[in-house]
Design brief:
The protein is about 50% helix and about 10% strand. It is an alpha/beta fold.
Length: about 280
């Protein structure tokens, strides 16, 4: 290692690919300075891996360039992971689940390849909306979150919000005369995920607020929706046929729709509870 031995001794020529110690207090001083520099530069992985790095080079198990490359790869991976975790928190996801966590075998009628194609950045670049439609427990929100995580990791500004929470925020902004600013805020996200459209009915006034937001995002940024209502029942949700048609027109014009027809994950393995005696 760069740290000096207890007593000074003549320097031994380094083998090819090795880091040669300089010996004496100078080496110890430089090693300590190196550690301090890592701390100052916030090179966390460098700081944690430097001793193993020196041992590998001095022991002849890796040449200097290969060891440095490995060290920088670890630091880059650490920083990317930190960014990913930060983006996930900022995006307000209710949980962290990826496509790999989804059991496609439990929903065999759902086209796995088409769903996984959402990882492609074309979804954002083309401002294509995504709708996950299905009965409760079929994994709609799971898949919507998975989409969001993919894009948050790619540093697209992503935000997840429950539909009724969104309506409440817009109503509050309207009463406080800050609606324009709040609409602009939600319209600016690269990917907006609106969960549980249709879980509760929305009156005409509130439907108009949602329409304004969808209209502002239309053909600019994609919006993902989850819903347990088929489109022919959205009129029941929004209460006004004119607003309903206007919303559907903008949601479906550029969109991918995934209908999930299958049993509830939450009821998996609980079928025996519903058998008649």
């Amino acid at each position: 290692m760069f740290a000096p031995s207890a007593a000074k001794s003549p320097a031994t020529p380094a083998e090819p690919g090795q880091v040669q110690e300089s010996g004496g207090m100078s080496a110890m001083s430089n090693y300590v300075k190196l550690i301090n520099n890592f701390d100052s530069l916030k090179l966390t992985t460098f700081r944690a891996s430097i001793d193993a790095f020196i041992d590998e080079v001095n022991g002849g198990r890796a040449d200097l360039v290969d060891a440095l490359y490995s060290l920088t790869e670890k630091e880059m991976a650490f920083r990317q992971d930190r960014v990913n975790r930060s983006m996930v928190v900022i995006s307000h996801f209710p949980f962290v689940k990826t496509f790999d966590d989804y059991d496609f075998s439990y929903q065999p009628r759902l086209n796995r390849d088409e769903v996984l194609d959402l990882r492609n950045l074309r979804f954002v670049e083309r401002a294509e909306n995504v709708v996950f439609m299905g009965t409760p427990g079929t994994g709609k929100t799971h898949l919507a979150v998975s989409v969001g995580i993919e894009y948050a990791k790619s540093r697209y500004m992503t935000y997840f919000v429950n539909c009724n929470d969104l309506i409440m925020q817009l109503k509050k902004a309207k009463h406080e005369n800050t609606l324009a600013r709040r609409l602009k805020h939600f319209a600016s996200y690269s990917v907006l995920i609106i969960d549980e459209v249709g879980f509760l009915p929305i009156d005409a006034e509130d439907s108009n607020l949602l329409f304004q937001l969808i209209s502002m995002r239309y053909e600019r940024h994609p919006t993902a929706f989850t819903t347990n209502k088929s489109f022919n029942r959205w009129g029941e949700v929004f209460g006004d046929p004119v607003i309903t048609n206007a919303i559907l027109d903008r949601v479906l014009h550029h969109s991918r729709v995934f209908q999930i027809v299958g049993p509830s994950y939450r009821m998996k393995g609980k079928g025996e509870l519903f058998k008649e005696d």
